[in-house]
Design brief:
The structure holds 3 protein chains of 3 kinds. Chain A is mostly helical. Chain A has 27 helices and 2 strands. A two-stranded antiparallel sheet of chain A has the order 1-2. The model of chain A has no long low-confidence stretch (mean pLDDT 83). Chain B has one domain: Helix Hairpins. The radius of gyration of chain B is 17 Å and the shape is elongated. A two-stranded antiparallel sheet of chain C has the order 1-2. In chain C, a hairpin with a 4-residue loop joins strand 1 and strand 2. The relative contact order of chain C is 0.07. The mean pLDDT of chain C is 86. The chains are: A mainly alpha, B mainly alpha, C mainly alpha.
Amino acid sequence: MYDFLWLVPTLPFLGFLILALFGKKLGKTLSAFVGVGSIGISALITILIGIRFLSSPPEGDAFVQTLWTWIAVDRFNVNIALHLDALSLVFTFVITFVGFWIHLYSVEYMADDESFSRFFAYMNLFVGAMLLLVLGDNLLLLYLGWEGVGLCSYLLIGFWYKDSANGYAARKAFIVTRVGDAAMAIGLFLLFYSFGTLNIQEILTQAPQTWSVGNNLAVIATLLLLGGAVGKSAQLPLQVWLPDAMAGPTPTSALIHAATMVTAGVYLIARMHGIYELAPVSMFVVAIVGAATLLIAGFAGLTQVDIKRVLAYSTISQIGYMFLALGVGAWSAAIFHFMIHAFFKALLFLGAGAIILAQHHEQNMFKMGGLAKALPVTFWTFLIGSGSLAALPLVTAGFYSKDAIIWFAWSAEGGNIYLWAAAVFGAFITGFYTFRMVFVTFFGQQKIDVSHFPKWTIHVPLIVLAFFALFGGFIELPGTMGHFTLFSDFLKSALPAMEEVAHENVSLEYFSQILTAVLALVSVYLAYVLYLKKPQIVTNFTDTGFGKGLQQFFLSGLGFDWLYERLFIRPYVWIARTNKRDFIDLFYVFLPWMSRQFHYAFSYTQSGKVRRYILGIALGAVVSITIVVIL
Amino acid sequence: MSSISLNTGLVIASILFFLGFLGVMIRRNILFMLISVEIMLNAAGLAFIFAGASHNAPDGQVMFIFILTMAAAEVAVGLALLIQVYQKFKTLDSDAASNMRG
Amino acid sequence: MTILFYIAAIIAIISTIMVITRTNVIHALLYMVVSLLATAVMFFLIGAPFIAALEIMIYAGAITVLFVFVVMMLNLGEEAVKQEKQWLSFSGWIFPAFLSLILLLEVIFIISSSGSVPISGKVIDPKLVGQSLFTTYLIGVELSAILLLAGIIGAYHLARRKKKVVHRFLELEGAEE
């Protein structure tokens, strides 16, 4: 079964090729079959491989399939090789499985779009690139997938390229992530310089021998990799591209936020955990970045009016949780939250897409309302997804995954009470803005008539994902509730476990869990009061000068765009303007100018008059013979 | 008899050569230019003969015969071209055929 | 013999000067014949009678006659002489003459700076010339033959009068038959 691993990334690429080359001729039905089918078969193979992996793990808990040699120059050897271990299996599973439902959903969502096959071509390429990223056994292959994902995000965010705002958003996403990618590339050079290889497993085994804990080179390399990770995963300070990325079609957002792209940073840090453990400073930075991002994105999410932007900020915030978990060394908790998050965030985006489709492509949720009756399936699945995002206690998967992170933020080796407080407060905000969205959208007065009632292609993905968003959490239960650790046991072969340290102080863990649970419920109640029962409180507050300013500040994503505009874009544009006639270029302009002058000078001698030519010969003879005579 | 030296001969040959060269330069008539080229070729042949005579070797004369052959061929082709030029431009002015300047 | 040689040399130089300064082509050609004959005398005196004969026959005979034929064919009249006078202006030839003089002086300087070899004037048998032509210089002879062939074909092709093709609507000048 393992030998079929190469098919997993190949099938989406094949689907992309077919759709890109023959998309127009295939027609919508066949395009949909190719686009969805390639991911479907990929997902099926992944599940079969996963079952095999669980029943009889390969030797050394990792399976490596070397396909061919990519580059071989002196000491620099890079293979096209796939590496499957527990970590990449989880990612592959989420990417293909969630990706498949998103693709199925897209068939209906994009049914009326004229670029139907182009959409599926990009989506397939996206999934393929992401699979390459998580399955690559060396950092260069990972980087290839990494850039492929960046390219696809650009293509998909700017999918409706006729509107220049979408093109702007696409370019923003591309350029901002490129900043991180540049840092990551330098990090890769540094790793190659230190280890002479880019093979991930070799680096991880060599690292403890080459570097002592706290080695400067290790800190720099991990920080550079972190730069790449924050760019892709939209963390502070490179989070600004993700809210604008909502310009793409909604299934794209689902794919970017749930299965691909933004989780790449989480994967990178989890994959390179061996060198991060050698750099405690970097670990701490990761945790700080995560904590700060989850708070900032949470605040920004409080005031958004666009339903997709609320979800975008919630994604940034949830990835922040994952970074926090990575930063404190709770590797498996981060991956667990990644998986659960993929389920409920895909569900939420697909639900939001169904709502947008039903509301004449209106995205402002304050113009919606009362949709609970009109779209029952969407409502209930969306409610489940929201509950999971808000971490409603006991019943939702999100509770278990988030609770683990919150607890580890305190109890783990790298954790402390401040990180814990930030995580708890972030959970409270998350619950509030999530249910604000639910109440505003589904309750109250219906303002726009429903234009599109979803069919099975939308309902089935929603229900399946809702199932996982509810029950996916039971594969890993905290120490206080049965200590059921199926997931982290599974990951133990790829990521170091740290459960033992964490479960010493049971009463504190109870305190943390109950506090989180209570805060989640309180936040829901608060949202209910403020946005359904007594909305005048909110309007009264925003009418005051301070309230209005605060609302504007949060709405603009805490002014990061404003800050970057002044800090980077304007000086850059100014430099570009003043240096319009690139002064270095002057030299290169001078060269052709000079040769052209010579050209004119010599073309003047080409008078066509034979006597002139003979005169030229005579002059040349005089000069050369004079030289001979004098010398 | 013995006062004829190689150098004297070469000087005479070069005087003739540069007279021919001067002719090519100062005349605009293609016919005169051809005549001057003949003078130059003849002067070159003269130099070969002097050099051969100074070595008492027949090689100089062999070279002269080659030059003679070449001069004959050159005159034939040159005069044919001249006729074409005259038919085309109705003049023998070499500057008339300067339309192909770069 | 020496005096004869120098007289011939002086005649050759003077007549060559006359060649390049004549305005009438026929006069120039006649001066060239004189120059070539003087050269032939020099050849004879330094021991190359065969070459002297060739000079007279081919240069002074065939080539000059070819020129004369062409001049007759072109049928240049008084106009051409006037034109030549106009073209041969002082400002036109002074600079080229200056250049030629410099070159000549430099070449004479180079020649005189090397040691001189007296010329015995011993006659070199035409037989020797023929022998070396067909042994050492065989390739050269063959190449000359090819050159002459090319010259014949080239001259024939170039000098051929183009037939004028008159179409119903347009005239195609120079169209091949």
